[in-house]
Design goal:
There is one protein chain. Helices cover 38% and strands 13% of the residues. The protein has 271 residues and is of the alpha/beta class. It has an eight-stranded parallel β-barrel, surrounded by six helices. Helix 4 (62-73) packs parallel to helix 5, helix 5 (94-106) packs across helix 6 and helix 8 packs parallel to helix 9 (186-195). The radius of gyration is 21 Å and the shape is elongated. It binds 3-methyl-2-oxobutanoic acid. Residues 23, 42, 44-46, 84, 180, 182, 203, 213, 215 line the site of 3-methyl-2-oxobutanoic acid (KIV).
Length: 271
């Protein structure tokens, strides 16, 4: 059995074979992602959208991510597990940031991810001083939905790209071992990727990044939302599951389920 990649090993993948990252939220997710050989499982706060059915990620708590991290880790995945720090879990103080991250590490995560650039440097440094590896997240950061006025592609002006490059440099200097770059034009994805020495894992950031991440439900066709343009859906599980449930309902109603083979036999003395 292979061991999960460590942050230094992930960092060393810069410019080499692209890193494969997928979100997962439960034991089947951890088990299947692991069996498929993905490098990194993100227990994302996207759980708020795709599992809890919310419009955004802002209602997700540290307890929620810890709960789902423990479920994923019960599969003993051979992938590196990242616990996503939810909104307001790393915004108040360094102490609170470290305590909240520790809860995710104690639930089984190997590192944590947080959103934002230069403004997050003190919190990233506090986590690293507490021996907690940190993955950054820049671009269309979903926890900024209210500030952005919606889920809008970022890095569309020269000044926005300059801020993005400065943010990437700042969090790299603070010690992140990798960063997610979301929702930016492909050329901006390339510029950011070339500007830092840590791997950039893209989601809607074009083909030049050091890896790609997709949300479980988007990749597997299990969502109720129309997937964003950058999603490649590999299977339509909505249809597969819906067909199975319809057939089950029909079999129950027609009494063709359960069959004799699906039933415990009657003891002779009761027959
Ligand atoms: O929570 C999540 O799924 C994420 C990905 C979009 C990178 O942060």
């Amino acid at each position: 059995m292979t061991s999960p990649l460590t942050p230094p090993q992930i960092r060393a993948r810069k410019g080499s074979t692209p890193l494969v990252m997928v979100t997962a939220y439960d034991e089947p997710g951890g088990r299947l992602a692991s069996a498929a050989g993905v490098d990194i499982i993100l227990v994302g706060d996207s759980v708020g959208n795709v599992v809890m059915g919310h419009d955004n990620t802002l209602r997700v708590t540290v307890d929620d991510i810890a709960h789902h991290t423990a479920a994923v880790c019960s599969a003993q995945p051979t992938a590196h597990v990242v616990g996503d720090m939810p909104w307001m879990s790393y915004h108040v103080s360094r102490e609170e940031t470290v305590r909240n991250a520790a809860q995710l590490i104690r639930a089984g995560a190997h590192s944590v991810k947080l959103e934002g650039g230069s403004v997050r440097v003190p919190h990233i440094e506090a986590l690293i001083a507490a021996e907690i590896p940190v993955m950054g997240h820049l671009g269309l950061t979903p926890q900024s939905v209210l500030a952005f006025g919606g889920f809008k592609v970022q890095g569309k002006t020269k000044s926005a790209v300059d801020v993005l490059l400065a943010d990437a440099a700042a969090i790299e200097a603070a010690g992140v071992y990798a960063l997610v770059l979301e929702g930016v034009p492909a050329e901006v994805g390339r510029l950011v990727t070339e500007s830092v020495g840590v791997p950039v894992i893209g989601i809607g950031a074009g083909a030049a990044t050091d890896g790609q991440v997709l949300v479980w439900h988007d990749l597997l066709g299990l969502g109720s939302r129309t997937p964003p343009k950058f999603v490649r859906q590999y299977v339509d599980l909505n249809n597969v599951i819906s067909d199975a449930l319809t057939r089950f309902a029909s079999d129950v109603r027609s009494r063709s389920f359960p069959s004799d083979g699906e039933t415990y036999s009657t003891p002779t003395e009761l027959a």
